[in-house]
């Protein structure tokens, strides 16, 4: 009886270690899957070059959304909620941030585009999401985004949503 219990415990421990290893391996597999398929709206974290041409015959609506990770004491919102653009045309908008915490904090924005396949066609020339954003307590900041929609955007996509989620990275920035 004791040997059966010990064997069961070993099997359960082995199963727990295997599940942890599988979960750990999913993160890089997920990144590769998103890179290959363009699913989940992951955008590049590198600046794009300016567009080569503008498609004056087409308009695409872009919606801008801002989220704050729970526990972060900032306000964060786009200066405009929506705009219509011609693919290839460069635009600048700002996100406004205020640190409402009683201490200096550092934020990092993570972008997401919907529909996911459109992420590869939204090119950011300059983006506050490329760098961490230190903000002293009680201070405001205007965070610029310079972007264009690639004229190669499929014709059936006429509406994009660009969402940023802001995370507090103060603790990891000090390491």
How would the blueprint of this fold be written?
Layout: H1 2-37, E1 60-68, E2 74-78, E3 82-85, E4 91-99, E5 105-114, E6 122-127, E7 133-135, E8 140-149, E9 159-168, H2 170-173
Parallel strand pairs: 1-9
Antiparallel strand pairs: 1-3, 2-4, 4-8, 5-7, 5-9, 6-8
Give the H and E element order. HEEEEEEEEEH
What shape does the CA trace take? flat
Structural class: alpha+beta
For the largest beta-sheet, the strand count, sense and barrel status come to: 5 strands, mixed
In whole angstroms, the N-to-C terminal distance is: 50 Å
- Widest β-sheet, arrangement of strands: 3-1-9-5-7
Number of helices: 2
Number of strands: 9
Helix residue percentage: 10-25%
Indicate the low-confidence ranges by residue numbers: none
Strand content: 35-45%
Radius of gyration: 21 Å
Mean pLDDT: 84
Describe this structure as you would to a colleague:
With 175 residues, the protein is α+β, with helices and mostly antiparallel strands. It contains two helices and nine strands. It has helices at residues 2-37, 170-173, and strands at residues 60-68, 74-78, 82-85, 91-99, 105-114, 122-127, 133-135, 140-149, 159-168. The strands form two sheets. It has a five-stranded mixed sheet. The relative contact order is 0.22. The mean pLDDT is 84.
């Amino acid at each position: 009886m004791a040997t059966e219990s010990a064997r069961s415990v070993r099997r359960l421990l082995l199963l727990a270690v295997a599940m942890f290893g599988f979960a750990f391996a999913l993160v890089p597999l997920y990144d590769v899957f998103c890179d290959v398929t363009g699913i989940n709206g992951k955008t590049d974290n590198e600046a794009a070059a300016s567009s080569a041409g503008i498609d004056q015959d087409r308009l695409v609506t872009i919606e801008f959304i801002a989220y704050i990770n729970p526990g972060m004491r900032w306000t964060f919102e786009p200066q405009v909620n929506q705009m219509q653009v011609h693919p290839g045309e460069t635009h600048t908008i700002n996100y406004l941030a205020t640190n409402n915490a009683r201490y200096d904090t550092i934020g990092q924005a993570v972008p997401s585009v919907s529909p996911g396949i459109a992420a590869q066609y939204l090119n950011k020339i300059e983006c506050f999401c490329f760098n961490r954003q230190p903000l002293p307590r009680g201070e405001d900041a205007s965070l610029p985004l310079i972007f264009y929609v690639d004229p190669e955007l499929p014709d059936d996509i006429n509406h994009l949503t660009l969402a940023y989620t802001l995370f507090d990275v103060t603790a990891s920035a000090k390491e």
